[in-house]
Amino acid sequence: MLHLLAQEVAGIPWYVVVFVLIAVIVAGSVFWLTQREANPEAAITTTRIEVAKPMTTTSNVPVAPRPEDFPATSASIPQNNRSPNAAIAARQQIKAQIQAGYKLTVDATANEEAIPTPTPSRLSTTATDMLHEAEVQRSAGRSDLATRKVRELLLREPQNAAALEMLGDLLAATGDRTAAAEAYRESARSNPGSGRVCMSLAKTLEGLGDIQAAIAAYRAATVADPTDHKAYNNLGGLLAETGDMAGGVDAFQKALAISPDDETAKENLALAQDILRESTATA
User: Most buried residue, 43, 116, 145, 202, by most Cβ within 10 Å?
Assistant: First the structure.
């Protein structure tokens, strides 16, 4: 057929006509590809994707877009018109929209959390709380932890009388009477009106063999708490032990005046009076 066509066109050979047709087709294809690379959007108009806007809440705070809010790339671009450049551009556009939506959400959350919430490490612990914790540890038999907590408090409040008294109790329980006596002394200086601390100090000093210092501590205890019959009884015993029978009798009598049923004070008073009478008779 092409042979017949060539004969009819001014006697031009058929192969020349075929060559010209092939050249025209190749030139048209090259031109089309050049225009497509220079302006892909003009070459392929079906690659434009309408991206859904991120949804917003009633508080006008942007919410991160979900994947289903955007059309699928493969469905938006007809298969016969898809190209690598157009597909990449579409994916980048969708990615940019998603990132923008998430960024808005993060910023809104950051504004809501502008005021820091106090953490347990920032909360201040009162001396009462620390003493209570130390007492709990001591009651549970964990004296080492209780001592550590008390010393921690004393680093903050060196003159805390209650902490010093508890430290003295803990040290005395371990047998360290010297350190316990020093803790009791410091506590008594911070709180001179505590008869209990004076009693603890007196007993500790008596255990150390410092009788005169113990007598002074017992006297301080009777001044701090005149109703403490045990302080008077112990004072009387040390006075009698050092030879001051008259002072011992007086202390025992004061103990019985406060607590008439104190059997120990009764026995001590009777013994002290006997010794005092014998010494008087011998003199």
Answer: 202
CA distances (Å), 194 to each of 167, 177, 250, in order?
Answer: 15, 20, 23
Q: Is the dihedral of CA 7, 12, 15, 16 positive or negative?
A: negative
Q: Is 141 helix (H, G, I), strand (E, B) or coil?
A: coil
C-alpha–C-alpha distance, residues 57 and 149, integer Å = 51
- Collapsing DSSP to helix, strand or coil, 137 comes out as helix
134 with 168: CB under 8 angstroms? no
Do 246 and 230 contact (CB within 8 A), yes or no?
A: no
Mean pLDDT by 10 residues, the chain (283 residues): 50 70 78 65 46 45 44 42 54 52 36 36 66 89 92 91 93 94 94 92 95 96 95 95 93 96 93 87 71
DSSP states along 42-84: HH-GGG---PPPPPB-TTS-B-PPPGGGS--HHHHS-GGG--H
Q: Closest by alpha carbon to 100, among 51, 50, 54?
A: 54
Q: What is the pTM of this model?
A: 0.55
